[in-house]
Amino acid sequence: MKTRKTWITALLAVAPLAAQAALPAYAPVTDARLATPESRNWLSYRGNYAGWGYSPLKQITSDNVGKLTLAWSYATGMKEGHQSPPMVNNGYMYITTPNNQVIAFEAATGKELWRYQKSIPEELMQLHPTNRGVALYGDRLYLATTDANLVALDAKTGEALWVKAVADWRKGYYMTLAPLAAKGKIMVGSSGGEYGIRGFVAAFDAETGEEAWRTYTIPAPGEPGGETWPGDTYKHGGGSVWITGNYDPDTGIAYWGVGNAGPWMPDTRAGDNLYANSTLALDVDTGKLKGYHQYHHNDAWDWDEVSAPLLIDLEHGGRKVKSLVHAGRNGYLWMLERSNGPIGFVDAWPYVTQNVFKSVDKKTGRPTYDPAHTPGTDKTVSFCPSLWGGKDWPPEAYNPQTGLLYIPANNNLCSELTGEPTKYSEGELYIGVALDNILTNVRMGDAARKHVGEVQAWNLKTGKKVWTHTYAEMNWGPLLTTGGNLVFGGGTNDRKFRAFDASTGKVLWEYPASSGVIGVPSSFEVDGEQYIAVQAGWGVDAQRMQGAFDAVLPHKTVVPQGGTVMVFKLAR
Question: Is 302 a catalytic residue?
Answer without folding.
Answer: yes
